[in-house]
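Why predict the complex rather than its parts? Because the way molecules touch one another can change local conformation, and only a joint prediction can capture that. The input here totals 592 residues.
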Amino acid sequence: MTTLPARRLRFAVSDSLVLTGRALAHAVRQPVPVLVGLLFPVLLVLMFGYLFGGAMTVPGGGDYREFLLPGMFAMTVAFGIEATYTAVASDTARGVTDRFRTLPMAPSAVVTGRAAADLLHSAAGLAVMLACGLAVGWQWRAGPARALAAVGLLLLLRFALIWVGIHLALVLRRPESVVALQILVWPVGFTSNAFVAPETMPGWLAAVAEWNPLSATVAACRELFGNPGWGGDSFAAQHAVALAVVWPVLLIAVFLPLSVRRWRHLGR
Amino acid sequence: MPVNGPTIDAEGLRKRYGDMRALDGLDLTVPAGGVCGLLGPNGAGKTTAVRVLTTLLRPDAGRATVAGADVLRHPDRVRARIGLVGQHAAVDEVLSGRQNLVLFARLHHLPVSRARARAADLLDRFDLVDAADRPVGTYSGGMRRRLDLAAGLILDPPVLVLDEPTTGLDPRARAQVWDAVRGLAAAGTTVLLTTQYLEEADQLADTLRVVDRGRVIAAGTPDQLKTALGGDRVDVVLSRPDDLDRAVRLVGVAVGAAPDVDPAALRLSVPVPQRVTALAAVLRALDDAGLAPADVAVRRPTLDEVYLRLTARDAPDTDRTVTA
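Output of the joint prediction:
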């Protein structure tokens, strides 16, 4: 018999793989919502890129679609919080979470399995969006290494949002409340640099947009992909890559312990 | 695993939510084998007790062992020895019945091939083979419950805890769940079952614990409880509504106790110390007054009556209407 910690670790890994497999089985059983989720950002690219794009100006010049795509990558990642929320809230409301808690499984697997599944889901979403970007004329212009770093930053933001989603789901526990989240994603997205450059906004709004965590990731992606619209005089614009690391790390530092606390609170 | 002594042994369990004492010093001893019913009104503390015993909830005070393991010190050992079927069918609605059972078997750390074999066994045992590969979202309430039961039995646990397993089921589905529970108990599983249906308790439970306001207020077999509380009763059913008031008075005088009245059924029911003497006295009193009852019978109290008496809050006995 292997030692106890080794067994524990093995079960923690195998249990979380089982739960990741469960999430994938969901996608196979219900492909339509998954496809809609993957294609919705594509629709946004077409809408903003072609419908509104003509009226948009990119500060410092440049093609609006080149400017838009990094913003849409970040929005794709932000939409993912809805999937995390729905999955965790449904399990908790339906008693599945309680069943997991009475099984001799590794408790951590419930969240690590979720996190792995959500990262895979968002990676698929980003792959679709990168392909969509290439199809509408977007390109990475600063080399593959920096492009990969940009994808890494996007997934880091997604990882941070997993913990926000889990925390909200364990607090609210109502799957229907995802509607509120679906609505709230929009003002957060619009008060960032994802669709429009902050320079074109009124001063106070520009400040909000500059410091929006989403903006940090978008600006960092523009920089790393070599797309137009990055840089500027403000501190946030000058340190976009650093902030695109700091913001998600901060979110994780706050929401990971909160989620663990909420999880333990289920037993009080 | 130690099997000596009781399978479930809880002492002085306390749990407060704000001002509400969900558990107020609950003691519970359940011997190995058979079905033990926890009976009580809504909010009595049944579910809280179950959640403590299945490691879902930490009590504020008290201790409990289940199948020889301490729920606070070794929750992992308890989890390996129990199956829980909660109030909601806690299964994945998107996956098929088979996928659900394989998932839960894998989370019990069975290897893939054994998990598949176990899922097939359980589907067969719970009569779900035809629906095995359909999404659970398309199952009827009864099928979902049976799948839920199956998911609680992956490792043939020595203890199965069922929290209101038939709430919301139609009579046919309820009978199916009862059959399954009887089969498990017959095979040696110790079943702890909470219910608010007295019929269910009477049908299934070998022993009962009546829970009220967070404590066990009575314990015994259904027969013992019926005998201990109330003894025999005489029921009189009248043929004319106009006779009701007179009959209540006459019967009350004849047996020296105020009858419970069900005006809709024209029925009086009164507890009696001596069945034969009392029956004769009631018949004589009615006959002397020229009242012809539709039916007169001596019977044991129903579990409903025992239960209502035990859990009566502030209503005095005479105000209560008993429907048998």
